[in-house]
Amino acid sequence: MIAQGNEISITDKALTKAYDLMRESNILGADYFLRVGVKGGGCSGLTYELDFDNESKPGDMKFGDERLTIVCDMKSFLYLCGTELDFTDGLNGKGFNFINPNASRTCGCGESFSI
To answer: Distance between CA 9 and CA 7 in Å, rounded?
Structure first.
């Protein structure tokens, strides 16, 4: 299912980093995608998940274009609708960041949030 409207998007910087990680891990097949999700935990209640996968599940939402597909399960999408995935490599931290318009509170490390 390709989602329309409020999608999960990725910046060019995060896309470049994802490609680099795929090459380093020898994940070069076109059947691989970036899976994003949410699970309970963390200091704010919900934690972001990010991984490479090649197995779709029933009900998965798909975003992206010919460069990279982003996949999210329907339950997680309820929390991640409209989110942009970015990558920071500055002095204040390094890693993928979820810019989530639905989060009412985010912990200091940026790995957990609440709605």
So the answer is: 6
Whether this prediction's pTM lies above 0.85 is answered by no
Q: 34-55 pLDDT, tens per residue?
A: 999 998 766 657 888 999 999 9
Cβ–Cβ under 8 Å, residues 106 and 44: yes
CATH number corresponding to 9-105: 2.60.300.12
Q: Positive or negative, the Cα torsion across 21, 27, 31, 36?
A: negative
Task: Give the pLDDT confidence of 58-67 residue by residue, as tens digits.
Answer: 999 998 877 7
Strand order in the sheet with 33-40: 61-64, 69-72, 33-40, 46-53, 112-114, 105-106
Q: Is 45 left (phi over 0), alpha (psi -120 to 50) or beta?
A: left
Domain boundaries, the chain: 9-105
Tokens of residue 36, six digits: 């994003």
- Host H or E run for residue 71: strand 69-72
CA 93: distance to chain centroid?
18
